[in-house]
Design brief:
The protein is α+β, with helices and mostly antiparallel strands and about 400 residues long. It folds into 2 domains: about 210 residues, Ribosomal Protein S5, domain 2 (2-Layer Sandwich), CATH 3.30.230.10; about 170 residues, Alpha-Beta Plaits (2-Layer Sandwich), CATH 3.30.70.890. Helix content is about 40%, strand content about 20%. It contains 11 helices and 13 strands. It has a 6-stranded mixed beta sheet with strand order 5-4-6-3-1-13, with helices on both faces. Helix 4 packs antiparallel against helix 5 and helix 6 packs across helix 8. The longest helix has 25 residues.
């Protein structure tokens, strides 16, 4: 990808350019879904697939942006003095939002630049392509303009961009693991304190395998923000009866006692998912550390059906992929990401991977007429400059 990225940059901006090259990973969440904004624990890892970017500074205030993944949009030209959101700029708004937020925080971005982007992260698959782009430009700005912003603060800045500039009311998980990820490790993150622990992924006989349903979803247009509002409503009702700051402050026994005050069955199911998913995530960390992948797999399965039945963020295609995965060699399977399409994550024995791939692709195509894509989820470091 490095040579390909440089070729793209020079094709667009000229052979005389001497850009610097950066890589920003995608992410997959092993377990702990839709609880980052409910004060819970999440368990993601950064991926070896992601977004590459080449950048060189200019001597004016012009910013020129190009993505090989959106080649038909051509080069988008903007000014450091005009970074307002424009719907027509589609993918480029994620970069613009980060630069705008840095300027609002009085960071010295003193000149324009040319950026070309290319990547092997599928768009709209729930592997966090948006946060990958946000952190890519944030780390570029941090390094090129010597801003000295700590990685945790970069993650928080990019989350603010997603919430306020893009309009997606997401939690901190995606930006955090993409900023701070570590190869060969998952990251257990407390989404309130932002305390985190790296957990080694050292199970040589098994692999985490991602299946892309090819059902794309846009978070802004989906029911993601609606789910968050429902959780907030449930929390406010429960706060009348028990002193909690977040839904995930409740343990399962407390929810058994106080969940009865959620008369609306929809709010009850939303809160139930948050509480039980948080418990599953905490337990899954211990299971993974103990090497008990079968127990971890059972937790993944329970997580999926909670997301499907209680939180209602799955879809028929994801449910089908989970069912056939468990019939074809996976010991644990669940949707990953915001849902409404996207991917599943599976635990598969290395010796079964070829059979698993061919079975899933065939059965899914027969059922839905869609060619699924399958990737081995190799973990990666967070966003960083790479040598040319």
């Amino acid at each position: 990808m490095k040579k390909q990225m440089l070729a793209v940059y020079k094709k667009v901006f000229g052979e005389e350019s001497n850009p610097r090259l950066f890589f920003s990973p995608g992410r997959v969440n092993l377990i702990g879904e839709h609880i980052d904004y409910n004060g819970g624990f999440v368990f993601p890892c950064a991926l070896s697939i992601g977004t590459y970017g080449a950048i060189s500074l200019r001597n004016d205030r012009l910013i020129r942006l190009y993505s090989e993944n959106f080649a038909t949009s051509g080069v988008i030209s903007i000014s450091l003095d005009d970074l307002e959101y424009q719907k027509s700029h589609t993918w480029a708004n994620y970069l613009k939002g980060v630069i705008r937020e840095l300027l609002l925080e009085h960071k010295p971005i003193l000149s324009g630049f040319n950026i070309a982007i290319d990547g092997d992260l599928p768009c709209g698959a729930g592997l966090s392509s948006s946060a990958s782009i946000e952190l890519l430009v944030a780390v570029m700005m941090n390094d090129l303009f010597c801003l000295n912003i700590p990685r945790k603060d970069l993650a928080l800045l990019c989350k603010k961009v997603e919430n306020e500039y893009i309009g997606v009311n997401c939690g901190i998980m995606d930006q955090f693991v993409i900023a701070l990820g570590k190869a060969k490790n998952a990251l257990l993150l407390d989404c309130v304190s932002l305390d985190y622990t790296f957990v080694p992924l050292n199970h040589p006989k098994y692999a985490f395998v991602i299946v892309n349903s090819k059902v794309k979803r846009g978070l802004v247009d989906s029911k993601y923000n609606e789910r968050r509002r429902e959780c907030e409503t449930a929390k406010k009702i429960l706060q009348k009866y028990i002193p909690i700051s977040e839904l995930c402050d409740l343990n399962e026994e407390q929810f058994q006692n106080y969940g009865l005050f959620l008369i609306d069955p929809v709010l009850y199911r939303r809160a139930k998912h948050a509480v039980t998913e948080n418990a599953r995530t905490i337990n899954a960390n211990h299971q993974l550390l103990a090497g008990d992948l079968h127990a971890f797999g059972e937790a993944m399965i329970a997580s999926h059906w909670s997301l499907s039945d209680d939180f209602e963020v799955s879809c028929p295609e994801l449910d089908f992929l989970v069912k056939i995965a468990l019939l074809n060699g996976s010991i644990g399977s669940r949707m990953t990401g915001a849902g409404f399409g996207g991917c599943t994550i599976n635990i598969v024995k290395n010796t079964d991977i070829d059979y698993f791939k061919s079975s899933i692709i065939t059965q899914y195509k027969d059922m839905y007429g869609i060619d699924a894509e399958i990737y081995i989820a190799q973990s990666s470091d967070g966003t960083k400059e790479i040598t040319i």
